[in-house]
Design a protein that fits this description.
Elements (H helix, E strand, L loop, with lengths): L5 H5 L1 H12 L6 H8 L4 H12 L14 H6 L5 H6 L6 E2 L2 E9 L3 E8 L7 E7 L6 H15 L9 E6 L5 E6 L4 E2 H7 L4 H20 L2 E2 L8 E3 L5 E3 L6 E2 L21 H4 L6 H17 L17 H8 L17 H8 L2 H9 L11 H12 L11 H11 L3 H9 L1 H40 L19 H15 L4 H17 L3 H17 L6 H16 L3 H16 L6 H15 L4 H16 L6 H14 L3 H19 L4 H16 L3 H18 L5 H16 L3 H19 L4 H16 L3 H18 L8 H13 L3 H15 L8 H16 L3 H17 L5 H15 L7
Antiparallel strand pairs: 1-2, 2-3, 3-4, 4-6, 5-6, 7-9, 8-11, 9-10
């Protein structure tokens, strides 16, 4: 049997798995292990044993069964692997090896832990295997590092660090992902079709994020997608991924890296690899996830039209031997599963699996959009246009429509029975309407009575008479609600919710939290867990807790709110979008990439409804884009939002002012100072007039105007703005509040820019202290005052301390923001300058050169920060510094 045997191609996934397991064992035990593990499968046994016999070379990598060099990659299994293995306890730079996790064709993976005492962290350490450190394979390994460093998404395993071992082998430090392959996880949890589709959407969103960074994965399959204990999907192994921007167009057909069972036609035929390759593999994954049936092996000269998922489900029970149907894993039958897959899902999968790349979905995002439309009961884009199809979808979204038609058609035959049922239904509806009407009347009467509290003839508080504030009237009303309506929990919950909302608008957060928290508890007690009122209360309570920096509790509430909205039949797209955007806003400071994914989904839902909330959704999305330095998209979203608000509300409305402020921030970050100042001043003028100078929104806009002045180098003006705002914030919020921390940090920058470093250091330390107290663990905003302190230490000539602080900031930012984010660039730049101060010119050159190259590729880095990095590199290389 030769390496290019068709049987070897067909069974490659099984062979690869068993071979890897065998190679993890001592050489003396491998043959016995293979015979035992493959008992009853002689073909698999013989393939693996033949491969074990052929492992003689010590170069190459595992790619496909047709590559003879690949087989040699395992040859290190005895002498070379044993010699190059890292024993538990081995120190690799800042990491200590805990145990061996696995081995592939190019690298060995270990579980490790941080050993420098900075903080506790368990990681996956991926080290190039000894004997494979040829120039070509080292280049491939470093390309993988480059690819991973460009990716930042909650569903992609993050690159945390990298370097070289003592013997010169490069290594990667990855997020340690512990989980189950996606198909097995879905089966174990008996997920239905809709739940599997939502799980798949996480994968598609991760792939789309990689495509936005010009990266094609090329090896999407269940074993590269794990689901953790928290239910979150993680996409792994970009080892054979391809950077589109560096693609030279070459294709090595004989040794091309792929998994045959999951390869696209262009991969097997040696064609051009594009994002359509990943779309095809996503289609295979989706079909396997829905049906439980793995793809059939294909050769490059045999491409029949793909089998539809519904037909795949039917055929699964006909094959022998079949110990159990995959359909049983989701609590259904094969026939019922086939019916559920027939129609839209057949079309979606078939479109993704078309043979020609140009015939498939144009992107992973388009594939995901059609799935979301299917979940919402909307017509999918891939379906041929027809009146009948749209009518079916309409009826699916409006289930009461068809029963109404059927009642008319069958009235002659079933008149008596239908009349009886109709009368009974009317009685129930009448009772419900009567109850609702009574509750509405009682609510209205109570609120009217409440706000007549100042009536001198019948005051709510006889001792105070009409000298009573709105807040005091609400407090009296809340006490009455708790006392008078204890026997009517639904009405009590409605009233507490209404009172709490007014408390919130009056900035009485403690009272609002108490009232709405009790309303939520009442609804839970009576089983009201799916209503719009329950969902709204969850959102309001989450907002209040988030303002008090109780982020974990707030997030739990918002996640439950999103679950409630997604559980509706049919789903209300506008309400679901509102839930997504609220969760995105909370995630912004902890995981900005996750926030963008949530906000983009929310905006996409609103576009399908022509909602009046579209302007606000785009405004928030612009802020999220700006947080990760996607500045062109931030400006575009802000401009669209402003146009919507001007059209809907007029030029002087509060919403218009907020949109103008958002556009001003986007323009300012892009260095367009003059139009940015115009937008900010327009927003401030509207807020001053409509809300007053001390309102939260007005203060926030003035603060950002100060930031704009700082970025423009007008530091004395920005200092004046920051000092005034900090005094107001301390009086309003107290010392331990994230907004106060922002005030200290911004003032520290303005003061440092004017050369008053001792004062600036004190202000930055106070900002860092507050952030660490009030922000969730791991929040990247802590890095900002640390970077300010690092610059102060550099100005004082203390390279050792500056490196420690700047490195700490870089560690916090890594994996939280893209490598092209201005903060990430400045962290590397200041570590490089610190190394230069200490005489370590090699490390300084690497860091500074990387920072300057990234500055040249992105926008948003302040002019003085660009000059800081360029001048330091020029000093090191002896060349004149270049102006931005």
């Amino acid at each position: 049997m030769t390496a290019d045997s068709p049987l070897l191609w067909e069974r490659w996934d099984d062979v690869d798995r068993l071979l890897a397991e065998a190679l993890d064992r001592p050489a003396s035990e491998r043959v016995a292990f293979v015979r035992r593990a493959a008992q009853g499968d002689e073909a698999l046994r013989d393939l693996v044993l033949r491969l074990l016999e052929r492992l003689e070379s010590d170069s190459g990598r595992v790619t496909s069964p047709s590559d003879p060099v690949v087989l040699g990659a395992f040859a290190a299994g005895d002498a070379a692997d044993d010699a190059g293995a890292l024993a538990p306890g081995t120190e690799v730079d800042r990491y200590r090896i805990i145990r061996h996790l696995g081995r592939g064709g190019m690298a060995t993976v270990y579980e490790a832990e941080r050993s420098d005492g900075t903080y506790q962290q368990r990681v996956a350490l991926k080290v190039l295997r000894r004997g494979l450190d040829t120039d070509d394979l080292v280049r491939r390994f470093l390309v993988e590092r480059q690819i991973l460093s460009s990716l930042s998404h909650p569903n992609i395993a993050r690159l945390l660090d990298g370097g070289s071992t003592a013997d010169g082998r490069p290594y990667l430090v990855m997020e340690l992902v512990e989980g189950t392959r996606i198909t097995a996880w879905a089966d174990e949890h008996r997920l239905g079709v809709r739940a599997r589709l939502r799980l798949f959407l996480e994968v598609a969103d991760a792939v789309q994020s990689a495509h936005r960074q010009l990266v094609v994965h090329r090896d999407i399959k269940p074993s590269n997608i794990l689901v953790g204990a928290d239910g979150r999907v993680k996409l792994l192994d970009f080892g054979i991924a391809k950077l589109l921007e560096t693609d030279g167009g070459e294709t090595d057909v004989g040794g091309r890296p792929l998994t045959p069972t999951y390869a696209s036609p262009e991969q097997l035929e040696g064609g051009r690899i594009t994002t359509a390759t990943d779309v095809y593999q996503l289609g295979l994954l989706l079909r396997e996830l829905l049906t439980g049936v793995r793809p059939e092996p294909r050769s490059s000269n045999s491409w029949d039209p793909p089998i539809r998922p519904s037909r795949t489900a039917e055929l699964a029970v006909m094959k022998t031997p079949v110990p159990e149907s995959r359909a049983a894993h989701r609590g259904t039958t094969p026939a019922r599963l086939a019916r559920e897959l027939r129609g839209d899902l057949d079309i979606i999968v078939s479109t993704a699996l078309r043979l020609g790349p140009d015939e498939r979905y144009t992107s992973a995002s388009d594939l995901a959009t059609d799935i979301r439309r299917h979940l919402q009961g909307l017509p999918i884009v891939a379906h041929p246009e027809s009146v009948a199809y749209r009518a079916r979808k309409f009826i699916g979204r409006h289930p009461t429509f068809l029963p109404g038609v059927a009642m008319t058609l069958f009235a002659a035959l079933l008149f008596v029975g239908m009349l009886i049922r109709h009368n009974r239904r009317l009685e129930r509806e009448r009772d419900i309407a009567t109850t609702a009407s009574r509750r509405a009347q009682e609510t209205q009467a109570f609120l009217v009575d409440l706000f007549e509290s100042a009536d001198p003839l019948s005051p709510a508080d006889p001792e105070r008479g009409r000298s009573i504030t709105v807040v005091e009237a609400l407090q009296i009303g809340e006490a009455r609600v708790r006392d008078e309506f204890a026997a009517e929990p639904e009405l009590q919950a409605d009233l507490l919710s209404a009172i709490g909302a007014v408390f919130s608008k009056l900035d009485q957060t403690a009272s609002a939290t108490s009232a709405i928290g009790d309303a939520v508890a009442l609804r839970l007690a009576i089983g009201d867990t799916v209503s719009a009122e329950f969902s709204d209360d969850l959102g309001e309570l989450a907002y209040l807790l988030g303002g008090k920096t109780q982020y974990d509790s707030s997030r739990q509430l918002l996640v439950r709110r999103l679950r409630v909205e997604r559980g509706r039949t049919p789903v209300d797209a506008e309400r679901e979008s509102k839930a997504l955007l609220a969760l995105a806003m909370l995630e912004r400071n902890r995981d900005p990439v996750a926030a963008i994914a949530l906000a983009e989904e929310g905006v996409a839902l609103l576009r399908s409804t022509n909602s009046a909330q579209m302007g606000e959704a785009l405004r928030r999305l612009s802020d999220d884009y700006r947080a990760v330095n996607r500045l062109e998209e931030a400006e575009a979203a802000a401009r669209e939002a402003l146009a919507i608000f001007e059209r809907q509300d007029g030029p002087d409305a509060v919403g218009t002012a907020m949109a103008a402020h958002t556009l001003g921030q986007a323009l300012g970050t892009r260095g367009q100072i003059t139009p940015a100042v115009e937008m900010m001043e327009r927003a401030v003028a509207i807020f001053d007039q409509r809300l007053g100078a001390d309102h939260n929104f007005t203060m926030a806009v003035r603060n950002n105007l100060g930031v704009l002045m700082t970025n423009a180098g007008r530091h004395a003006e920005s200092e004046g703005i920051y000092r005034e705002l900090l005094e107001v914030k301390l009086g309003k919020y107290g010392p331990d509040n994230s907004l106060v921390a922002v005030g200290y940090q911004n003032l520290a920058v303005a003061v440092a820019e004017q050369g008053r470093y001792r004062e600036a250091d004190s202000l930055a330390r106070e900002a860092e202290r507050i952030y660490r107290r009030v922000m969730p663990p791991g929040s990247y905003v802590v890095a900002f005052p640390m970077l300010t302190r690092a610059e102060i230490l550099l100005q004082g000539g203390n390279g050792v301390a500056a490196e420690r602080v700047a490195s700490g900031a870089a560690d916090i930012l890594r994996g939280k923001v893209p490598t092209g984010h201005p903060a990430a660039i400045m962290a590397d730049c200041r570590v490089g300058r610190a190394r230069l101060l200490q005489g370590d010119t090699t490390a300084a050159h690497l860091l500074l050169d990387s920072a300057v190259q990234r500055i040249a590729r992105i926008e948003g880095v302040r002019a003085e920060h660009q000059a800081e990095c360029r001048d330091a590199l020029a000093l090191l290389t002896g060349t004149p510094g270049s102006n931005p």
